[in-house]
Amino acid sequence: MVEDLFMDDMRLRGKEVLRNVAFESYEQLSTKIGHSALQVNYKSVGSDDIQPILAEYLVGCDGAHSRVRKAIPGVEAVGVSQPAIWGVLDGELITDFPDIWSKTLVYSEEHGSILIVPRERNMTRLYIELKSCQTPTALADLARGDDLGQAFVMEQARKIMAPFRIDWSCIEWFGRYQVGQRLASHFSDESASVFLAGDASHTHSPKSAQGMNTAMHDSWNLAWKLNLAARGFARPELMASYEEERRKVALDLVNFDYEHANQIANGDAVALAKNFLFNVRFISGIGAEYGPSILTQPRVIHEESAFACAEAARPGSILPPAKVTRYIDANPVDIQLDIPMLGQFRIYLFAWDVFQSGTFLESFSNSISSRTSFVNALSAAATASYARQPRPTAPEDVYTRPERYVKASELFTFALITTMPKSEFEISDLPLLLQESRWTLYLDNVPEQDTRGVRCTEKWLGRLAPGEVAIVTVRPDGYVGSVGRWDAGLDESGANAARWLDEYYGGFLKLPDEPST
Amino acid sequence: MVEDLFMDDMRLRGKEVLRNVAFESYEQLSTKIGHSALQVNYKSVGSDDIQPILAEYLVGCDGAHSRVRKAIPGVEAVGVSQPAIWGVLDGELITDFPDIWSKTLVYSEEHGSILIVPRERNMTRLYIELKSCQTPTALADLARGDDLGQAFVMEQARKIMAPFRIDWSCIEWFGRYQVGQRLASHFSDESASVFLAGDASHTHSPKSAQGMNTAMHDSWNLAWKLNLAARGFARPELMASYEEERRKVALDLVNFDYEHANQIANGDAVALAKNFLFNVRFISGIGAEYGPSILTQPRVIHEESAFACAEAARPGSILPPAKVTRYIDANPVDIQLDIPMLGQFRIYLFAWDVFQSGTFLESFSNSISSRTSFVNALSAAATASYARQPRPTAPEDVYTRPERYVKASELFTFALITTMPKSEFEISDLPLLLQESRWTLYLDNVPEQDTRGVRCTEKWLGRLAPGEVAIVTVRPDGYVGSVGRWDAGLDESGANAARWLDEYYGGFLKLPDEPST
C-alpha cells in the first residue's frame, strides 16, 4: 500500500519502476568524485543475459541480503544474531481472547511470547516466539529449513495463548526470522556514487515498526543530497554526511531494538511498557536526531543573547510543530508543513515588529541579493539548473502551486514570522525579497491552537529578545540546520546575517563547475 | 469536483447516472400512499422522442427553474426578485489589489460592490454588482438578454476596483443573475412520491455558499427517509417531515440571505461583518436546526432530573463534537463521526458505572430483545429487508467494516459511553446487546482533547446525576432525535427506557406490510 503511494506519485510525474530485474554487479567507469559514471549490470527474471545500464548513482535498497552491499569493495554487514527465532502470521483470527485490537504482549514462561499487533481489514499480526527452537539442534534444523513451517508456528501460538483459544479464518502471510542486529561497515562506496539504504545498511527486529520508517528516512536524507549532487551543487562533504547522519540513527535504532526485543522475550510487561514509553520519541521518528556537523551546526550566538538556551528548533532535530496564520489568505497553518518540500532549503526570519526590524530586513535582503552573496550566486545557478532540468510536474501542481515557494530562489524559500497584527503592515512595506515570498509570510498569533499553547516564536526559539531578529535555517528534509540571532538595532546585523548564511551553505554547497547535462 | 466525489462513490457501488436526458412530465399510476408507482417521461438531448421510465419515487433536483416543480399540481415558487443584478467571474487575476486571497468586499458608492472569493488553482471569483442596471430600462434589457455580457461585467469590475487595476489572464466561467428569494409552496406532491430538493425548492443569492450546502442537507434529510419508505418502514408522518423540516431551514436561509445580500450591496463593512459573525453558526450548517416534532422530541424527563437544562445534544440539532476513547482498541475518536452512516438510527447510553448501572443495562437489553419490543420487531424486519436488498457494497468496505455497526440490528446501532476506567470492566461483563455492540463502547476519559476541555457526557447532557442513566437517540442524518434520563436504582427503569424508545420510533416507523420487492 505504501509502495503504491510512491509509485502513483512517480507515475503522475512520468517515472516508472523497472520490475523483474535483479542487480548483478557494477563497474566504476570513472572515479572523479562528483562526476562518476557507473555501469550497472542486471539480469531479467527468467533470463541469464546480463544487461548493462549507465548511471551516475546507484542506491542499494535491496534488503538485508543486499547484493549491492556485497558488491561494494570492503563493505560488509557487521553484528550478531540473537538466538531467538520468531514466526509472523498475518490473518483473521477466531478467538475468545479479547485484546486483539490493541498492541498486546502475551507471555508464557514455558512456551514464549506473542506480540499482537492489530491490522487493517480485521486482520491481526502475531509475532510468535519459537522458544522450543532455541537449541543448537533446532537452530541447525532451521538452517536446513526444516520443520518450522506455518502449521508449527500456529501450534506454538495456540500453546502460548492457552487457555484462550485461537484459530484463523484465513492467513494472508507467514514469515519466520531470526533477529540480528547488523550494520553495514560503510553506507557508500569511496567515490560517493554507490549508496545503501534501509535493510541493506542496517537490520534489526521488526517489532517496533522501524524497518520501513527508518528506510524512508534514509532515502529522504539521501534523495535531496543526490539531487544537489546531480545538479553539481554538492561538495564531497555533503555526500559524506549521508553515512555520518544515518549511521548514527541506525546505531541508535539497533541499540534500542536489542533492548526492546529482549524485553519482549523476557515477558516483563511493566519493564517493557516503561522501555517503550522512554523510547517513544525515537520510535515515532521525531527522536531520530543528527549530531553536530557542517550541516547541523552547533548553536552559535553571533550577537550575545541571554535567551538562547531553551530553543526547541535545535540543529540536527526535526522542526517542532507550531501554528501560525498565513498573512496572505489569513488561514491558520501548521508552519512546519506549510512550505512544500521541493528540494530547497528554508530560511525562517523571526521579528517582533516589521518596522522596528526594518533596517535589518532591508539590509539582509540587499545583501542576499548582492553580487557578492554566495546565496545569490547559488540561486542564480539554481535558476539555470532548474531551467535546464525542471522538477517533474504533476497535474496536482495546479492546486498546490509549487511556484509560489521558489519565486525568490529555486534553492531557498525565505519566510518571515512576526507577531505584528495583520492590520498594521502591508506586504508592500517589506523589502523585495520578502515581497516575492508573500506566501511564506506568517503571523504568529494563534498560540491557542498550539498543543502547548505557545506561539511559534517561543516554541522554536525559547525566547526572542525585544529588538532581536533570529534566523532558523531548515534543510530540504525538514531538519533544522542552524539558528542565529542578531540585534536588529545594529546597522551591520542584516549584512552579518547574510554572511552567516553564506558561511553555512559554503560548508557543503558549491557552484556547479559547468552546466550539468 | 464535489459531483465527482459522489459519482465515484456511486460507481464503486455499481450505480451510474443517466446523462443527457431532460425531464418532461410524470404520471401517477397508483396513488395509494407509500405504494405509489410513477411513470416518468423524459427526452434524450437531440431527440424529440419521449421515453418512459417506471419509478417509485421522483426527486426534482433540477434547479431554480425546476421542471419537476412545475409538474407537481398546485406547487409554485413563491417570493420576490431583488432589483440588484450581479455578474460572476471565475478567473486568474492580474491586479495590484493585495487582498484577493481572503473573502473581501469592495464598495464603490458610485459603481456598486464586488465580493471577492479566493478559489483553487490561483483563481478568484468576483461577484460584481451591476448597479447601473438597476433601472426599469436596464432590467428590461436584461430580460431581453442584451448588453450585459462578459465584457460589460469586466468593465464594471474595473470601475469598482479603481484606483487599483484589475485584469484577467484567463476567465474560466462567467455568469449573471438577479437575486430572488423564493420558496416552493410545497416540497412534495400529495402522495409523497415526488419531492423537490435544492434550488428547485428554494432560491437565494449565492454569496454565503449556501446553495450547494443546503441542497446536500435537503437530499441527506430525504435520502434516509426514502430508504425507509422504500423498505416499507416509513409512516406517512416520516415522509411529511421532509417538507416540515427543510422548509423551516429554507425560510431561515432566505431570511438570513435577504438581510445579508442587502448588506453586501449597502457597503457597510462593519455591519456586514457583524451580520456574518452573528449568522456564522447557521452558515456553517451547524445552526440549521429543526423544530419539535415526532422526529425531534421536545425534551421529556421521564424520571425527575434536576440537571437536564444545560443539554447540548438538543433534539433537532446536530450532535456536538466530542472526544472519547474507543474501548476495544483504545483509540481516541470523534464520537459524533465514529459510527458510519448506514441509514441506521443510533442509540447512545450514558452510565457512570457499568456495574452500578448493571440492573438497568441488563433489563434494558432484555426488554429491547424481548418479543413485545417494537424496536426488536423492527430489527427483525430490517434483517429480512437487508437480506433481500443489501446495502450496496464497495471495495473500501473491507477497511471500514460496516458490519461491525449493524451486528445487533440493521436499523439501530447501540452505543455505551462510560467514565469507568478500562481496567475495571470487560466487554464480557456487559449484557449481550452491548457485547454485540463492542465497537461502539466508549470510555469518556479524554476531556483534554476536547475544544472546550469537557467530557462527552457533560458536553452532550449538561450533567448526569450519580446513579442516573441517559439515552440520546440520533437519526440517520446525525440529528438528535430524543433525550431521556432514568434513575438506574429503580428496577423498572430499564424496561421504561426500552418502552420510551418503542414509543418514539412508533411515532414515525412501522413494520412493513409485506416483503418489499
UniProtKB/TrEMBL annotation, chains A, B:
This is Phenol 2-monooxygenase. The keyword Nucleotidyltransferase does not apply. Residues 2-256 form the FAD-binding domain. Belongs to the PheA/TfdB FAD monooxygenase family. Pfam families: FAD_binding_3 (PF01494), Phe_hydrox_dim (PF07976). GO terms for molecular function: FAD binding; oxidoreductase activity, acting on paired donors, with incorporation or reduction of molecular oxygen, NAD(P)H as one donor, and incorporation of one atom of oxygen. Residues 289-509 form the Phenol hydroxylase-like C-terminal dimerisation domain. It comes from Cordyceps javanica. It comes from the Eukaryota. The lineage of its organism: Eukaryota, Fungi, Dikarya, Ascomycota, Pezizomycotina. Keywords: FAD, Flavoprotein, Monooxygenase, Oxidoreductase. InterPro entries: FAD-bd, FAD/NAD-bd_sf, Phe_hydrox_C_dim_dom, PHOX_C_sf, RIFMO-like, Thioredoxin-like_sf.
